[in-house]
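TASK: fixed-backbone design
INPUT:
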C-alpha cells in the first residue's frame, strides 16, 4: 500500500449493484498535492494522488465518473527500490479516509465476502517504468486507520521496466482467466503479488479468487478483515499518460465492527515493491 498506499468508485453499491463506471478523464478536479485526495460519486469512491516514495511532482486528473489520468509526473526512482507513488481509486478505508457504502472492513470468513467483485480498465502510455495493479489490504482487526499488518495482496496486470514485487517468485497459477506469477515477501506484513505473465488492460474478478489462493498457500488467514480495495499505478520513472478508465466495486453487504483500533506505533516503511529480493521496505505510518 502506499500513503494513502504501503510497498507495495462512484456507484450504486447495495445488493450487488455495480458501484462505479468511468468515462474519459474530466478537466476537474486536478490533484497535485502529495497526499491529496477527493471523493467521487457521493463519497462511494476516493481517488488519491499518494506520492509517498519520492519528492518529485505528480498531478492526476480525476474523472468524477470513476477514474483518473496521471496528467504529469517527474519521477525517476531507482528500479531496485520503491516506486514513487501509488495514485489510486478505492472503496473502503485508507488511513482513516473511508468511502461510503462499501461494507468494509469485512472479515474474510463472512459469507458476504464471497460476493465482493471488482473490475478495472487501464490505458498505458508508450514510455515509463511502472506497474498497473490492484492493492487489497487485510488486517487481523477491522482497522480503519493506520498500517494494515495482515496481508497485502497485489494484482499486477502490467509491468514495464526492470521492476519486480517484494520477495521472490514461489509459483505460477491460473486465476480469473489468466496466468500469474506468484511472489511472496514479508516486510512487517505478508505481501502476496500476482504478476500477469502477459499484459492485461482489464480485469473483472471476485476478490475471494485471489484471497483463497493466498490462504491456501499459508500467507493469509480467513479471520482477517478486508479493509480496502484499491486500483492504480506504481510509477518508478515517468508515469504521465497512465489512465485508469473505469473502476467498479460490488458487494451484498455484511460488514462488521468498523470502530478504529489503535494503530501500532512501531511500524516504519514506505512501499511494497522492489527489484531486489534482498531489499526490505514498506510504507511509513503516513502510508498504507
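OUTPUT:
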Amino acid at each position: 500500500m502506499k500513503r494513502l498506499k504501503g510497498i507495495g468508485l462512484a456507484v450504486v453499491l447495495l445488493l450487488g449493484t455495480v458501484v462505479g463506471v468511468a468515462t474519459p478523464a474530466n478537466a476537474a478536479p486536478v490533484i497535485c498535492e502529495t497526499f491529496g485526495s477527493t471523493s467521487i460519486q457521493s463519497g462511494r469512491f476516493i481517488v488519491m494522488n499518494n506520492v509517498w516514495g519520492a519528492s518529485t511532482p505528480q498531478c492526476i486528473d480525476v474523472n468524477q465518473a470513476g477514474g483518473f489520468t496521471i496528467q504529469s509526473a517527474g519521477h525517476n526512482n531507482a528500479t531496485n527500490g520503491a516506486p514513487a507513488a501509488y495514485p489510486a481509486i478505492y472503496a473502503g478505508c485508507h488511513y482513516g479516509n473511508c468511502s461510503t457504502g462499501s461494507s468494509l472492513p469485512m472479515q474474510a470468513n463472512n459469507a458476504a465476502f464471497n460476493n465482493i467483485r471488482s473490475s478495472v480498465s487501464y490505458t498505458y502510455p508508450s514510455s515509463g517504468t511502472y506497474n498497473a495493479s490492484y492493492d487489497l489490504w487485510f488486517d487481523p482487526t477491522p482497522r480503519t486507520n493506520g498500517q494494515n499488518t495482515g496481508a497485502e495482496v497485489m494484482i499486477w496486470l502490467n509491468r514495464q521496466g526492470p521492476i519486480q514485487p517484494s520477495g521472490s517468485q514461489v509459483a505460477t497459477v491460473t486465476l480469473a482467466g489468466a496466468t500469474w506469477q506468484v511472489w511472496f515477501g514479508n516486510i512487517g506484513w505478508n505481501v502476496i503479488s500476482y504478476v500477469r505473465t502477459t499484459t492485461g488492460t482489464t480485469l473483472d474478478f471476485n476478490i475471494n479468487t485471489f484471497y483463497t489462493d493466498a490462504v491456501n498457500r499459508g500467507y493469509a488467514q480467513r479471520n482477517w478483515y478486508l479493509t480496502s480495495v484499491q486500483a492504480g499505478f506504481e510509477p518508478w520513472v515517468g508515469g504521465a499518460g497512465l489512465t485508469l478508465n473505469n473502476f467498479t466495486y460490488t458487494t451484498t453487504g455484511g460488514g462488521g465492527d468498523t470502530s478504529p483500533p489503535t494503530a501500532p506505533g512501531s511500524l516504519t516503511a514506505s512501499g511494497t515493491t522492489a527489484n531486489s529480493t534482498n531489499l526490505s521496505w514498506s510504507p511509513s505510518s503516513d502510508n498504507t
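COMMENT: The chain has one domain: 30-250.
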